[in-house]
Amino acid sequence: MDKKGKVFLVGAGPGDVELLTLKAERLIKEADVVVFDRLVGEKVMDLIPEGCEKIDVGKNVGDHPVPQHEINKILLREALKGKNVVRLKGGDPFVFGRGGEELELLSEEKVNFQVVPGITSSIAAAAYGGIPVTHRDFCSSLHIITGHAKAGAELSIDFPALVRLNGTLVFMMSVANVGAIAKGLMEAGMAKDMPCAIVENGTRLNQRRFVSDLDNIEETVKINQVKSPAVILVGKVCSLADKFTWFDELPLKGKKILITQPQKKASKLEEQLRALGAETKLYPCIKTEYIRPVAVPLEENQILVFTSAEGVHSFFNWLDEAGLDSRALAGKKIACVGPATKKTLKDYGLNCDFMPTEYYGETLGKEMVETGFADRDTKVLLLRANIGSEEILEILENASIPFTDCKIYKTEYIKHENMPEFSNWDYITFTSKSTVEGFVKSMGQADFEGVKAICIGRKTAEIAAEFNFQTLVSKSATIESMVERIVEDI
Ligand code: SAH
After folding, report:
1. Is residue 465 part of a domain?
2. CATH of the domain at 38
3. pLDDT (tens digit, 9 = 90+) per residue, 35-90?
4. Which partner for 350 in 9, 176, 345, 485 could form a disulfide, CB atoms 3.0-4.6 Å apart?
């Protein structure tokens, strides 16, 4: 018989991808098949490797596209094929996650399994809502309760027992039944002014949190149109919510930002924006690709100039193809446009000899000439994109500095099937002239008037302004400075 696979029952945490355990991350990356739920965070899903099969068994309350017994069979079927199966579930797999039911069939069939606990939303959503689920001054127990009743049945909650326990109550799957829960607790003697809170989409960048008291909680849910997933918290600890609020007060919380950088570069900008609470979406408008240059006259040039990190990667690509390595650069000087390019060079073990005071190609050219870094007796090799701007060339030409403009990578615009709906976005970010052009091209005839565009420098802003964007320019041409500019605007 074929070797049986294994099933890993893995908690995906409450939504924020950084709340995933290291073990979960490793198993996701090693999986052949991932069987996932609706509650698994989008960024967690992004960790699933490309070749891995994804099976969606997501279910909404009251609407179960894949019945539980089918899910159990899917897990068994895939394991019997010899696959590494990750069963990925929101929060913790055993906290109202039916994890136990999923293991039964596997255990009967003697399929190997392992369980990876996850951070449960019952606690995490509270923490991100500024509520410590226990506190010595307020309670001595914590209770996690489902507020979901089986179809057609009444809620089966022992309200008097809960009231007597005097602890913190966390109700899950309870948005639809919040009225009945509040009524049940009050009828069992709980004070009407008992502090309560609702945390919707806890730990996610679209989290909303509302604080109320027991008497008004149903109304609060209705007025704010709270939707699942949300936890309802009842107990004195909720009185701390305003004092300890932190996540909802991050500087970019609630802001939606569209990122147009090429996919492989976007992570730094995206990470920084998300760390400040912004909701981001990647909409890469350009992609860059190495092109083999007709010739790279390495030997005869004394100065190498890099105007982007991509130029550095592509140059090393060429060097390798040519059967060379860094030793071929011995004795040469290196100039770069700014810190990101400098850092990339450093990653290849090279220091940079020259960087301009402002991170533009034009300034780079000007200052190389002004400082005498390059002169008539030095030959300069520019390693750039096929659509690099002309300014630096003109400056070198006017100073009679011999140079070769070597096109080592190409920039292409990306066509998208689904355009981002504009009115939904607070900001769009442009990290180069070509991202502006790529974006405009992808959007066809859209009107960009009033759309706030954060531009990496004035060159990029000039182009964006031509298309009617309302431009905000970062002080310096770095990702950090772009992020600062957005925060300043809030
Ligand atoms: N196993 C999961 C719970 C599954 S039951 C866990 O440990 O978190 C589904 C319920 O979990 C939802 O109805 C909601 O009450 C809660 N829930 C899941 N994710 C949530 C989130 N991000 N914010 C608030 N509540 C969430």
Report:
1. yes
2. 3.40.1010.10
3. 998 899 988 999 999 999 999 998 554 565 788 899 999 999 999 999 999 999 99
4. 345
